[in-house]
């Protein structure tokens, strides 16, 4: 263990056999030092598939806030095992000071007589690694409505993103299908540090969202004959590391912002918001380190974005979220709320509680009382949301996402 790790970060591991659908109780999670293999902590998961929050040494905060020559995050290895499943080794889990890292571990059933060990390697953070320069593209793409690829009258939030794990023309690289919000959280955890100011984090997430939704709306790669939405090549697109840990501070911001994108008057599409680190690579869009400096000066997210993309940009929200049974009612649900939206939440939480028994069953009466608030608060704790007991925008859509996933599995 390095003696210069004077600060602390948090790691919590969530284990399931189907992501967010079947939590794995009593899984053994071992955290080790990659330098000498020594065991730092061994913990087990609860009925929600979660370990306790484990505090771990991390480098000084200023390394990730100011930049410099020292790596700003600590590395740990995590091994997860459970009855009748494979063993999963995750190498290089990143821990930032004052931040909470979330490592999702999806275990596959063991194959009798097989080699039931799987390894996941987390790549170095993009701000700590020299990546190739961005290939410039226009902020607004020409749209050929006769091509057959653009069929949506307006941007929508897709249920899934198909990520090509290589350059666009690398036919040896595989593809993975990832829920939209999980993709954005992964990219943001690869691209920025969760120790940055909240407004800086939000500005960068909005750029990531707009970049991604431009690829979705214009069918950029499918229009070129490919069967994927985006790549994980930073020269063409954005960093994405399948299986890596994310950060709670980033997760909360994505849950709040995921339907938003950047645009301008008189264009139909999300702006193609290229960005770069601003130190090793330069581009015509947002500088990640520059945005951090502006956040330290007190700039809000929109002011940061206008610095790089122009004073005429504004934030728009997509009207439709694919794969969701019903849209957010527009106002938070809280104690005293009545009606069909409350009934919807109660019904969905009861379905979810079949897999997550810590969430108490509710009477479906359309009345938001203490019992509903307590079940909502338990849900929020399990899924890394602010524990308010109210169903706000973020909580509504997360309840809907988990409900849909569990319903699909049951059918």
Describe this structure in words.
Helices cover 27% and strands 21% of the residues. The chain is globular. Helix 2 (180-191) crosses helix 4. It has helices at residues 62-66, 180-191, 198-218, 248-257, 288-296, 301-309, 340-353, 370-382, 393-410, and strands spanning 7-18, 22-23, 28-32, 39-44, 54-58, 74-81, 87-95, 100-106, 117-121, 160-164, 175-179, 230-231, 246-247, 260-263, 275-276, 286-287, 314-317. The strands form 5 sheets. Strands 1, 2, 5, 8 and 13 form a 5-stranded mixed sheet that branches. Strands 4-3-6-7-9 form a 5-stranded mixed sheet, with no helix packed on it. The mean pLDDT is 94. A hairpin with a 6-residue loop joins strand 3 (28-32) and strand 4 (39-44). The chain is an alpha/beta fold and 411 residues long. The chain has 3 domains: 7-122, Immunoglobulin-like, CATH 2.60.40.1120; 160-317, no CATH class; 340-410, no CATH class. The chain is built from 9 helices and 17 strands.
């Amino acid at each position: 263990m390095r003696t210069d790790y004077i600060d602390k970060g948090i790691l919590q591991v969530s284990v399931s056999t189907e992501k967010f659908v079947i939590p794995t109780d009593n899984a053994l999670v071992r955290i080790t030092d990659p330098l000498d293999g020594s065991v730092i902590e061994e913990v087990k998961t609860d009925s929600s598939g979660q370990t306790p929050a484990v505090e771990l040494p991390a480098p000084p905060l200023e390394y990730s806030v100011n930049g410099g020559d020292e790596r700003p995050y600590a590395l740990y290895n995590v091994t997860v095992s459970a009855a009748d499943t494979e063993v999963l080794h995750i190498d290089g889990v990143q821990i930032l000071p004052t931040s909470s890292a979330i490592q999702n571990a999806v275990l596959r059933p063991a194959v009798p007589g097989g080699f039931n060990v799987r390894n996941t390697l987390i790549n170095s953070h993009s701000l700590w690694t020299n990546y190739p320069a961005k290939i410039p593209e226009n902020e607004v793409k020409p749209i050929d409505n006769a091509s057959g690829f653009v069929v949506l009258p307006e941007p929508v939030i897709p249920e899934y993103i198909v990520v090509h794990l290589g350059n666009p023309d690398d036919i040896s690289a595989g593809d993975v299908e990832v829920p939209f919000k999980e993709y954005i959280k992964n990219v943001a955890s690869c691209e920025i540090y969760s120790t940055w100011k909240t407004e800086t984090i939000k500005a960068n997430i909005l750029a990531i969202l707009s970049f991604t939704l431009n690829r979705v709306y214009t069918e950029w790669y499918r229009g070129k004959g490919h069967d994927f939405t985006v790549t994980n090549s930073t020269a063409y697109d954005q960093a994405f590391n399948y299986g890596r840990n994310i950060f709670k501070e980033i997760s909360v911001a994505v849950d709040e912002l995921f339907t938003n994108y950047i645009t301008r008057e008189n264009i139909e599409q999300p702006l193609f918001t290229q960005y770069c680190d601003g130190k090793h690579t330069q581009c015509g869009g947002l500088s990640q380190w520059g945005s951090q400096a502006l956040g330290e000066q007190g700039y809000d997210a929109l002011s940061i974005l206008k610095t790089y993309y122009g004073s005429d940009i504004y934030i728009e929200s997509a009207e439709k979220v694919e794969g969701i049974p019903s849209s957010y009612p527009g106002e938070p649900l809280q104690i005293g709320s009545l009606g069909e939206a409350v009934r919807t939440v109660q019904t969905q939480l009861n379905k979810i509680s079949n897999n997550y028994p810590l969430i108490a069953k509710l009477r479906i009466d359309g009345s938001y009382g203490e019992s509903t608030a307590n079940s909502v608060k338990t849900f929020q704790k399990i899924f890394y949301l602010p524990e308010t007991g109210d169903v706000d925008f973020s909580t509504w859509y997360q309840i809907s996402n988990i409900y849909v996933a569990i319903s699909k599995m049951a059918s």
